[in-house]
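okkk here we go again. third time trying to get the adenosine-5'-diphosphate bound version out, last two times i messed up the smiles copy paste (missing a bracket lol). double checked this time i swear
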Amino acid sequence: MLEASGLVKRYGSRTAVDGVSFTVRRGDTLGLLGPNGAGKTTTLQMLVGAIAPDAGTVRFADGGDPGDPEVRRRIGVAPQTLALYPELSAAENLAFFASLYGLHGARRRERVAWCLDFAGLSERQRDRVATFSGGMQRRLNLACALVHEPELLLLDEPTVGVDPQSRNHIFARILGLRGAGLTVLYTTHYMEEAERLCTRIAILDHGRILAFDGLDALLRAHGGGVVVEGELEAAPAPGTRLPGELDGLTLRMRSDDPPRTLRELAGSGLHFRTLRMERPDLESVFLHLTGRHLRDDA
Amino acid sequence: MSPALAIARKDLLCLLRDKQGLFWALAFPLVMALFFGAMFGSSGEGRGALQLLVVDEDATPRSRDLVERLGRTSALQVRAATADEARDSVRRGKATAALRIVKGFGEANLFAGGAPSFALLVDPARQAEAGMLEGLLTQAVFEGMAARMADPAAARAEARSAAERLTADQGMNGVQRAMFQAFFAALDRFLADLPQSGVGDGGMPFAGPRIAREALARDGQRPRSTWEITFPQAMLWGVLGLLITFAVSMVREREEGTLLRLRIAPLRMSQILAGKGLAYAVGAGAVVLLILGLAVALFGLRVASVPMLAAALACTVAAFTGLMLLFSTMGRTVPAVSGAASAFMVIASMLGGGMIPLFLMPAWMQALGSVSPVKWAILALEGALWREFDLAEMAAPCAVLLAIGLLSGIAGVRLLRR
Ligand SMILES: Nc1ncnc2c1ncn2[C@@H]1O[C@H](COP(=O)(O)OP(=O)(O)O)[C@@H](O)[C@H]1O
Ligand SMILES: [Mg+2]
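finally!!
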């Protein structure tokens, strides 16, 4: 559906995007995961032709480029900043953006109503956006990208700064869109979101894609195995070879295949009284790939 | 609705709901027009007029006629007073001069003259104006005489009475008396031959010097009141205030990301700018027409020519629409754009006579003013309102305004594409 190859964007001496290539397939929910400043927004803006790349190309399914009005008509974008008119009501914002895509009359009213429902704002449709909470504005920001029924939806950190309730609303709606067959490109710096929503994930850091695959494949390749931790029934005999570190009776180890590891331990007479397993997550993938944590505050 | 129209509609809706933007575009210019208009005096005739107190000791129809004539002179503000009050006011600088019309003024014969019939007291600090005052007084007296001469029957009676008085004068020798008698006889015949009515005011050779006020300026070419100066200025302030509001709204769209939405929609850049420009033009047109309507309805602003005014307004709006597009794309942040646009507003209106009328400025500043679109806009507006411009005179400022609009608009489009 969309192919980006070798995208480069420099700002002065800083290279914001440094040779990014990936393909979005129809029906994908592709996650672009990376910390702040990784180059997600810049990449997304190059995909839609809002900024010109210094190198590389973007091509859509049937050979169109993002400057082509026909291609643009099929793309919807929810920018990272709240791109709304605060003086206008929710319905007026939606109607305005719809009219940019040539919608009018009954068709436009129908789409506006659909989007208001999508954003859970039908009851507040006549209120000015300036009076909305951050979460409501986020939901409307997302709905505005859908008013013209795009085939490809680009979401730039759609949950930044929202309350948990709005976040759940947005998640549910995106899963619904995914179910309806919409192709989505989702950028975020929250690994939970990428894990929960995306079928494939590209990990971006310093303008480069470090890994690009399905969640399980990423975890397997870069997650460093499941962390298994448990309290042994009895201290192991001295000299027993252990697959991890022992601290008193607590054994802590990593395993790519925990059931097999546990069977092998049982075979050598080691039984657990309690057991806790920790699946690796994208945080550990990122840590493994970069030596750093994904979030500034982590 | 085409996308450009949708953008224009959206911008106007946002403007209507933006109380601050509206204040600067509409309320502020009006307040300033009213304030400055009132401060410099609501009437051009009152402004700079000499305060003249008149003590009419004669109190005859002729003296009253003279007072009335003086009152009609635009350079004088005439008020009746008692002799003491008049002297006191002049001494304290409350009035410029006091005129005493001595008893007997009314009796003075047109042809025989008599003792001086006036006493003029002028504020010592305003001696420069004394000469002008005497001139005005002479003019009024001559006008009165001319009016009396316009009625040949009355003039004849006056001539006869003068003849009687002179021939009765014992100090006159025979030759002199014969000369006067011959003169008055000739005058009497002359007056008798005149049509008994229909001699225009001042149509007589005795009318004295007609002081040609028209030589200074045709009446139509002078502002009749300060409102005619301050309201065109207010229109320009409105246009400039709205320019800032719109230029800032454009850069706000850039900062807040709505411009991104516009740019990724299937629109051409030219449509986005057309929408913005259209919204501004409609908004500025509405502001100017509102101010104009108010000025005409409540302050009696003259509109010499409606078609000329339409042309002046259209060219003014076109010029500032182009400038708005330029300023909206010149900076990337709200402070940058609002700073640049505000600086432009201040400098352009200062140089262009938007604050202080150009004719009050030194010559070099008037010359410098030509770089300001405000000057050309005010010139065009005044040309249509009261300067009574003809087509050629109007074409010059309009051409300059259109050129400014076109060039800055093109530059704006270039900058946005960047
Ligand atoms: N307009 C710009 N001018 C200069 N630097 C920029 C600009 N936009 C982005 N950058 C820089 O490019 C890098 C990537 O930014 P961005 O794409 O916004 O990251 P992300 O969206 O992943 O947080 C950052 O270092 C940022 O400072
Ligand atoms: Mg970003």
